[in-house]
Each structure stands twice: as structure tokens, then as C-alpha cells.
Amino acid sequence: MKLNYLKFGTTAFVWLLGTALASGQQLADQSGVDLKDLSAFKNPGQTWSVAGGVTTNLNEVNVLNVTKGTGVLVNQPTKKVAGSDLLTLGEHGDIVLDLDYMMAKGANSGIYLQGIYEIQLEDSWGMLNSTASNNGGIYARWDDTKPEGKQGYEGHAPRQNASKAPGLWQHIRIAFQAAKFDGSLKKTQNARIISIELNGVMIHDNIELFGSTRGANGFEKPMAALRLQGDHGAIAFKNIKFSKLPADAVSRQRGNDTDPIYIDVATTPNVRSFVDIPGGTKVVHAISVSSPSQVHYSYDLDNGYLFQAWHGDFVDATPMWDGRGNGTSRPRGSLMTFTKKPVPTLAKLTDANAAWLPDTTGTGFRTKGYMVDDNNRPTFTYNMYGTKVTDAIKVLDGGQGLNREISLATPVDNVYALLATGVSDIQELSKGVYLIDGQSFYLKFDDLKDKPVIRDANGKKDLIVLVRGKLNYSILF
């Protein structure tokens, strides 16, 4: 189309553009992509396929393992077979795009709105100080005539790194306003990212796009195909949905007039407050613990339960003091909730299928508070079943999750730990590695004497494990 414009002039170009618009249905008028096959895309290359499920190995770079079926779009370029980008048959202008994606370890890809404005997708797990070229970034524009080191410009880093681990599904929601043109195709208004939410976190808000980003496959225009980058690494997509951009989308982003009260990790590493569990209950004796690695968690002192953790910024304490205040704080990052209602982490059971305790009644539970180390990071202690329990939770190197060690001062027979509860599914990926709740997080065990038990619980799944004096495991998310 660009060559035709140069050769035949504006009139011919306008005619060709109208033909293109007539031939492809607008994506915003569709509900999404039915991934029963690849029929929604233009000439898909041989590295693209449809699968029923996808997992990855955290120790293998750029590898996805697929199972037969439909519903998941997969790209797996190799050294022998180079990948290519995938374009939709339908085209879009203004649009709201929702989709889930999964990165292989070390992989790199991107979503090109209208084929020319790239939102970067990358394995940025645990990374500090994200740039425009990391996961969720709006990729930079490029000018080879600029001095060395300054060719890239007008890129936008995400506000915080809300990325998840390889092999876990991540959700992105993009509200996009296309550039506007007059009747002679002169641009009258720049394109704009109204908002981007990654894993429930606002990472971009009202960003004007002055031109195409690096790697564009054309020039700015009213309508063009959505493009998925396919030549950089293994990636999977599912639940690709489209909707119209609301007419008042820009004004919606203005928010309210309340000045937020954010907690500074350096000065206040731990926060005692109420915490509302999304879709669940209020924890009234909670402590939220931060780390400079941008991995944080909340702990229920009444039950010894680790009930949520998150990547990114620490705590919004606005509800504690705004107006009359309600005493709650809330995470600011990409949240992983482990339960809707905390129960005791430990329970003495007659067998592995016995009902879990609803509370600590009859267990001799008594909290002993916590001890802090030189960095003000706590280790929790309580009495239960006639012994002292120590619960030490530490951030893993590289900010990839948490390590937890539960120790009993004296052994107690038939005491189990509840590590996942009320989840949709649990998969054992390899020895000691479990994938939990629709590929939301991993549990990893080292040197475990007793194999964890996956059991049914009111139509959901639990994972419990016998505690023989000490239990050590990691949560990767």
C-alpha cells in the first residue's frame, strides 16, 4: 500500500485504503479470536500452532511444552525454523484489547497495535528498574541519524514491574485510541495509549504516541491489523478479546481527587493493619512485610497463615487514614492471593483426607509475635499442639518469590501444613515442583521426605504435606 501511494498519489491511496477496510472486519466489532484453528490470521508461519495446554521448564530457555487440543495460540521458533510475526485478518482503530500470555524462560515478544506501536512482552521476572524494552514497556521509536546511544527515544517504561514467572499466565488489558486523519489522510491527532493494566496493575496511563515505534511494519493509518511478534522467542496466548473503546475513556483515567498515601519501604518496612482479601474476608491481625527486591507478602497472625504475596510497589495505606479511615491497607503490585479465608496453616489430622480445621480452637494456639532481623524482616512464632512453631519467610534471590521454613521445636505426630487450598487444579510438573490454580504460581520442595498430598475439597483442590519437625519450600510467582 505504501508503494502504491508513492506511485499513484493520494487519490489512488485513498481508494486502496477503502478497499482494505472493506475486506477485513473491524476487530472492535468482534468478541475475540476463536482459537480452534489459525483461520483468524493472515498466512501464519510454521512456528505458530494451536494447542490445548502449555507449560514450561524453569531451567530451560525458550522452550514450551504443549498438549494437544485447542484454545491456546503457541509460537515456538527454533534455530532451524525461524519465527515470523502473526497478523489478524481483521483490522482495528480505537480498541480495548484483553488477552492472556505466557512467556518461556528468557523469551521475548510483543503486541503491535495496528502493526506499528509495540507493547513489549518479555520474561522480566524479578527484574528491578524496568525500562521501555522490558515486559509491559511501550517500545521506543528509532532514528539511525541520531548520535550513538540516542537512536532510541520516546519509549515508556512500565510504572512498576508486575511480571510473573515463565510458565505462568499473565493478563494484559490495553485501551488504545488510534491516530485521527482528515479526508486527505493528514494526521490531525496522535495515537494514544489510554491505559495498560498488567496482572491487575496500572502500568501506563494516558501516553501520547507521536509516531511508530521501532520495528513497525508500516506507517500510521486509521485502521490496520493487530500483530503478534513471532521471531524472538517462545510464547503462548489465550482468551484474546476485543471491545470498543468507551467514548469517555480519556476522562475515566482522571481518577479521584484523593492524594494517595503510599508507604516508603526504606522507612516503614512492615505495616500492621486490617487487610481485605479480594472476594474473601477481612484479616484483622495482619502484617504486610516488604523487601527492596519488590517482593512483599501479608501474614495472618491469628492463624499463622501466609495469605497473599505480590511483585511491584509495596502498600497503599490511603484507606487507613483518608477521611475517617477503615484501618485497611492494600497491595500496590501484582497480587497473588493464596486463600479467600485464612485457616490455620498447621493441623493435626487422623489421616490426609480428614477435614481441615476452621480455626485454632482446641489446638493450644497462642501467638508469640515475631522477631526481626537486622533488616527489620520478621520471623513469626507461636505455640500450637504443645510445641513452639517458628515460621521464617524470606525473599528469594533475584526477587523470584518467597522461601518459607516452618519448624517445630519438638516433633508432633500427624501434623500437616496446608500450602494451597480451594484452587482449581494442581499439576505435578516434575519431582518436587507443582503448578497451582490455573498456572497462577509454583510450589517447589527440596529434600522433602514425604510426597505432598493433592486432595479434593468441596469441588476444589488442596495441597497438604506432612511436617516432620521442619518443612522448607518456595513459592515462585
Features:
477 residues; mainly beta; Jelly Rolls; Beta-galactosidase, Chain A, domain 5; 2 domains; eight-stranded antiparallel beta sheet; seven-stranded antiparallel beta sheet; 4 helices; 35 strands; 44% strand; globular; disordered N terminus
The secondary structure category is mainly beta
Biggest sheet record: 8 strands, antiparallel
Question: How confident overall, as mean pLDDT?
Answer: 91
How is the CATH topology of the largest domain named?
Jelly Rolls
Explained architecture:
The chain has about 475 residues and is mainly β. It has two domains: about 1-250, Exo-inulinase, domain 1 (Jelly Rolls), CATH 2.60.120.560; about 270-475, Beta-galactosidase, Chain A, domain 5 (Distorted Sandwich), CATH 2.70.98. It is about 5% helix and about 45% strand. It has four helices and 35 strands. An eight-stranded antiparallel sheet has the order 25-26-27-28-35-32-31-30, with no helix packed on it. The chain has a seven-stranded antiparallel sheet with strand order 2-3-16-5-10-13-14, with no helix packed on it. Strand 26 (about 380-385) and strand 27 form a beta hairpin. The two termini are about 45 Å apart. Residues about 1-25 have low confidence and may be disordered.
Summarize the structure.
This protein is mainly beta and 477 residues long. Helices cover 6% and strands 44% of the residues. It is built from four helices and 35 strands.
Per-chain topology:
Blueprint (H helix, E strand, L loop, with lengths): L1 H7 L1 H14 L17 E2 L5 E8 L9 E11 L10 E7 L2 E9 L4 E6 L3 E6 L18 E2 L9 E2 L16 E8 L2 E2 L5 E3 L1 E8 L2 E9 L14 E5 L6 E9 L5 H4 L17 E7 L5 E8 L5 E6 L4 E7 L3 E2 L1 H4 L8 E2 L2 E4 L8 E3 L17 E7 L5 E7 L2 E9 L5 E8 L6 E9 L2 E5 L2 E4 L4 E5 L7 E5 L2 E7 L3 E7 L1
Helix pairs in contact: 1-2
